[in-house]
Structure formats: structure tokens, C-alpha cells
Amino acid sequence: MAATQTIPAGGVRDLLSSHIGAGPYTRLVKEEVLDPGYGSQSPSTYTATTATPVVGSVPSATALPTPSPVEAVKRPSARKTGGSKAKKVKAEPKDLPDSNTNSQSQIQDHMVVQKKKRDRFKGTTEAEVLTRVLPDHIREDLDILIVGINPGLTAAYVQHHYAGPGNHFWKCLYLSGMIPEPMNALQDAELLNYGIGFTNIVARTTRGSADLTRKEIFEGGEILKQKMLKYLPKIALFNGKGIYEVFCGHKKFHFGLQPEPFPGCPNTVSTL
Asked: Quick check: is 150 catalytic?
């Protein structure tokens, strides 16, 4: 005959110790007891069941009394009781600072950053540089007279030919073999010693050749012809295709020595 004894969870160890070595088969059953008043699970209790085993057999699970189930009381769920899921509330944007707030961003927005201009002409204004005229380096019986379109700002300011930043004229002149040693724009007058001179179609200084008018180019071409007749250089070297195109008024030519002589000067050939 099985005996059933219910004890609190704290006395399980004492109960097991009393049954070890006694002989009867002991079974502990844990029962979850819920108290509706708590709203949550209360402490567990244990049911100790003992039975005397039959000799030569193993007690079966059916010989042990099954504890009566205790109906669990669960907290009501929002879904089962028809409760609606909580909606996410979109966060309101933070208030922007009013116009009186001296925030760093507002201060920077009202700051005027002025870039420091590079003083290209060391205190001389561009208007003053535009009034300067670059002198020719020319004499009679030259081997080559190099012809440019008109002076640029840097050349007019320093008063030397082909002195603009990044201008490769002087390097190319040396690599061509026309001069025996490297030279620069500050030595342009010294090229007369090698039979090389400088002049321009238009004498007026501009920021670029696009600032020239057709009238200036036409009048400059007539002045250039007069220089050729006066000094009679052997070769008139136009420094660039565009310069020769402006001078001759057409595009039917090629780079290098031109088949026809310089206009009005039968002994002077043209090249570019």
C-alpha cells in the first residue's frame, strides 16, 4: 500500500535522507501551485510517494499513484483578451534654435570668408600693367625674328618676352639647338648676340589674345610688314599656328617652312 506525504520544498533534502537505505521505493513529484492572488507562480511543493517493491520485479510506473493535476492560472494576454498592440509613436522633431540663439552654426553662416589674393605684380595693379608696352629686341641683318601675337600680363610687368608662368618657350629654344646654352626670359635681349630678335603683331598688352580686336590685328600686321622691310631678317618665325593664321588671314598652310616668301619681302621666308 503506497503512502503519500506532502512536504514543503525546503524539506526535500531531509525527506530523501530519511528514505535512503530504508528499502521502499520513493518517488518525488513536483507540483506547480499557482495562486491567483499573486498573479505569478508561488513556491513549488513536492509530494513524496513510497511503495514497497515486489521481490523479483521492478516497480512499474502504473503502480505509483498519479498526483492530481493543478489547473494553472495564467495572466491574461493582450491578444487573447482582444487588447490592441501598442502603436509606435513617432518622435517629434527637436525644436530648431530661434533667431536669437547664438549657436556655432549660425555664427559661421554669417561669417564672410575672404580668400587672400596672390599679389602677382607686387603692389602694381592689373590696370597699370595693362598700360605697359613690351619693347622689341630687333636689329638689322637678323637670322631669325620671332613674331608673337601680343604681350601678356606677366611679360609686360617684367618687361621680358615669354616670361609667363609655365611657359616652355625658353626650354624648347635650347633643346632645338638654336642657342648653345640654356637661357631664360631675363636674358631675352642677349639673344641678339645669336642673331635672334623678338617682336609682336600687336603691341597692346591684354589678359589673352581673345581680347584683341580685328582692327588691331589688321593694323598690327601692316606694322609688322614695315618692320620686315626695314630690318630684313632672313627668317620670320611665327610662334604658333594661330598667330600665322591671324596674320595671313587663311588656314591653308602647314607647320614648318612655308612655300611662299613673306609678303613684300622676297628674301625673307616664313615658318612656324
From this structure: yes
